[in-house]
Amino acid sequence: MKMERAERIEKFIDAMPKVELHLHLEGAIPHETLLAQIRRKGTEPSIRTVDDLKAKLTYTDFPSFIDLWIWKNTFIQHEEDFGEIAYAMLRGLSRQNVKYVESFYAPGDYSRFGLSTEGITECVIAGKERARSDFGIRCELIVDLIRDHGPEIGMKRLDEVTPYLGKGVIGIGIGGSEQLFPAGPYAEVYREARRRGFRLTAHAGEVAGADSIRSAIEDLGAERIGHGLTAYEDPEVVDMLKARRIPLEMCIISNSRTGVCPSVKEHPIRDYFREGLVVTVNSDDPSMFSSSLTDEYLALSRHLGFTLDEVKQVALNAARASFLPAGEKAELVSTFESEWADL
């Protein structure tokens, strides 16, 4: 009887509508798509199959994960590749009944290969619009300014993507080496982005402490926090997140696979949920972890003691935490409630 109930819950989670708020385009390249890019370049003869690729994508800690990330990026050689990646990524997400996605992309990572921010952005927009036409899944883009590059380059990137605001691009964020490059120096970039109409998120509290989260909120004015894993280190930060209703874009499997959290069962999302924080779950870099957004929700049920009603609440949090305009957000929430009733 217990097993039958677990199976019903897992079938529900598989079929339920979902929103993805913390997903890196370059970390969500389907394995088949990345394998084709590797073959085209022809520099890795030992990687002949998807299994070979999965074996290559193994790491022991966060720094080795970053090394693999950089290796993977060398196979994205043309601006048009980004359109192919966006389309393939969204096709896969649509099969998980993901209705809406806010995806990071980092055009600045590819300037050394001669690719332009404008060209990459236009190709990603074309790919995501084709996916919307074919699969009905909507995606808006968040530009990762990459904190390692510094605020001067960040402002330059902001200028480059501003013409696409409201035409496929919805916000900015900063990923990269959080422990080496604090958020504070980006304050002026974020103020200018807000003035122009960009929505604001920031990676914080993934590999640095609670002070990183505080800075993202107080110095940058971040409306959402990417990860927020270490908020528990400072009760004042937890209280700030709770009082201001700042959503956390949490990534359970990512945090355990990169070693910044000892295990899925020790992830603080359960405690944060009980505290009344606005938590969401997201897949971050699913191709790097051989995981999915559905797997993130299954982790809530299997390992963290979330009931089905609580799983639904987390999904609803994500819909409400999106950067969509109020009317479109209400339509998304209505779609969720209708599909849940059918399920």
> Number of helix segments?
16
Radius of gyration from the alpha-carbon trace, in angstroms: 19 Å
Low-confidence stretches: none
CATH superfamily: Metal-dependent hydrolases
Shape: globular
Largest sheet: 8 strands, parallel
Name the CATH architecture.
Answer: Alpha-Beta Barrel
> Quick one: CATH class?
Alpha Beta
Order of helices and strands: HEHHHHEHEHEHEHEHEHHEHHHH
Number of β-strand runs: 8
Proportion in helices: 40-55%
Q: By helix and strand content, what is the structural category?
A: alpha/beta
Beta-strand level of the residues, as a percent range? 5-15%
Strand order of the largest sheet: 1-2-3-4-5-6-7-8
Helices and strands, with pairings:
Blueprint: H1 2-15, E1 18-24, H2 31-41, H3 50-56, H4 62-73, H5 79-94, E2 98-105, H6 117-135, E3 138-144, H7 151-161, E4 169-173, H8 187-196, E5 199-204, H9 210-218, E6 224-227, H10 235-244, E7 248-250, H11 252-257, H12 269-275, E8 279-281, H13 286-289, H14 293-303, H15 308-321, H16 326-342
Parallel strand pairs: 1-2, 2-3, 3-4, 4-5, 5-6, 6-7, 7-8
Describe this structure in words.
The protein is α/β, with parallel strands linked by helices and 343 residues long. The protein has a single domain, classed as TIM Barrel (Alpha-Beta Barrel), CATH 3.20.20. It contains 16 helices and 8 strands. It has helices spanning 2-15, 31-41, 50-56, 62-73, 79-94, 117-135, 151-161, 187-196, 210-218, 235-244, 252-257, 269-275, 286-289, 293-303, 308-321, 326-342; strands spanning 18-24, 98-105, 138-144, 169-173, 199-204, 224-227, 248-250, 279-281. Strands 1-2-3-4-5-6-7-8 form an 8-stranded parallel beta sheet. Strand 5, helix 9 (210-218) and strand 6 form a beta-alpha-beta unit. Helix 1 (2-15) runs antiparallel to helix 14 and helix 5 (79-94) packs parallel to helix 6 (117-135). The radius of gyration is 19 Å and the shape is globular. The two termini are 20 Å apart. The relative contact order is 0.13. The model has no long low-confidence stretch (mean pLDDT 94).
